[in-house]
Write a structure and sequence with these properties.
Elements: E1 13-18, E2 22-28, E3 34-41, H1 49-63, E4 68-73, E5 76-78, E6 83-87, E7 92-95, H2 97-105, E8 110-113, H3 114-125, E9 133-138, E10 146-149, E11 152-153, H4 183-186, H5 188-199, H6 206-214, H7 218-242, E12 246-250, H8 258-271, E13 279-282, H9 289-302
Parallel strand pairs: 1-4, 4-8, 9-12, 12-13
Antiparallel strand pairs: 1-2, 2-3, 5-6, 6-7, 9-10, 10-11
């Protein structure tokens, strides 16, 4: 059955995900099958970043002709107004993206948030497929989350999902200005940074630390266990409040697979008592989750 067009017509849909390092796009058919993909570097933060993003989306729309377009961006996103409220990494505030993109492309554009788009895609097409209540937790440079219930993503007027900025008790400073944030101890960037601070040795990233954990290096194990402990704390109270059936772990750190998911599941099981214990699974859509979710948002807007 088609998840995009159940009226019988065939409509190509373009989904674009504006990430911190790359702008990714997919063209999908009316069954959600990926037909083509594109990727290009994200413009650097600065006064010209918004016009350059608009131009990049316009170029992708010309390269991949479609009947509908959805665009996802990071930061705080007000989907109802179509406004990118704030992005620390890319440096914009209160940008009316939906209107600007509609003018650039000459048609309405579905405008959404990158993590919420990824959550929708993972729920309908990926690791959380079939789950009525699902929490999506991508762990990369930062940590975010999105809750899907009965096929709808909770947005909290653009402010929901900041799991990376809850205090899990470690006391370290965070770039947001607070201390103890999950992101400051358990993101991929934090794991690499904390390993280097502990040992003085440079690593290429959290994946490199994971290899050292597998080899039994004590310092790597310590950093890894502290990251897992922070994640367990955050997911334990999330399970108590939201009771998701499934937690889908995505982002670059999900590449560690069992090295991350198995101790996380054990820790969560030990922490919970009567609460529903969520099933932990790895995301399956990889780096295309955001743009595939943007395509889904475009379909929903057209209904």
């Amino acid at each position: 059955m088609s998840i995009f067009d159940q009226t019988g017509g065939s409509v190509a849909v373009l989904g674009v995900d504006v990430g911190g390092t790359a702008i990714k796009a997919v063209l999908v058919d009316d069954a959600g099958t990926v037909l083509e993909t594109r990727s290009r570097p994200t413009p650097r933060r600065g006064p010209s970043v918004v016009p350059e993003v608009l131009d990049a989306v316009g170029d992708l729309a010309e390269e991949l002709p479609s009947g509908r377009v959805g665009v996802a961006v990071p930061g705080i996103v007000d989907e109802r107004r179509g406004v990118g409220v704030f992005s620390e990494n890319l440096g914009w505030r209160d940008v009316p993206f939906a209107d600007l993109l509609a003018d650039r492309l000459g048609r309405p554009v579905a405008f959404t948030h990158d993590v919420r788009a990824g959550a929708l895609a993972e729920n309908l097409l990926g690791g959380g497929r079939g789950a009525r209540t699902m929490l999506f937790v991508p762990i990369g440079t930062g940590i975010a989350s999105a809750l899907v219930t009965d096929g709808h993503v909770h947005d909290g007027d653009g402010y929901a999902g900041e799991l990376g900025h809850v205090d899990v008790g470690h006391g370290e400073p965070c770039l947001c200005g607070s201390t103890g944030c999950l992101e400051a101890v358990a993101s991929a960037a934090a794991i690499a940074r904390r390993y280097t601070a502990l040992t003085g040795g440079e690593v290429s990233g959290a994946v490199d630390v994971a290899r050292r954990v597998e080899a039994g290096e004590p310092e790597a194990v310590r950093v890894w266990e502290e990251a897992v402990s922070g994640l367990v704390t955050a997911l334990a109270w999330t399970a108590s409040v939201l009771a998701p059936e499934v937690v889908v772990v995505g982002g670059g750190l999900s590449g560690a697979d069992r090295l991350l998911l198995e101790p996380l599941a054990r820790g969560l099981s030990a922490r919970l008592t009567f609460q529903r214990e969520p099933r932990l699974v790895r995301a399956t859509l990889g780096g295309l989750a955001g743009c595939r979710g943007a395509a889904l948002a475009a379909h929903r807007r057209a209904r």
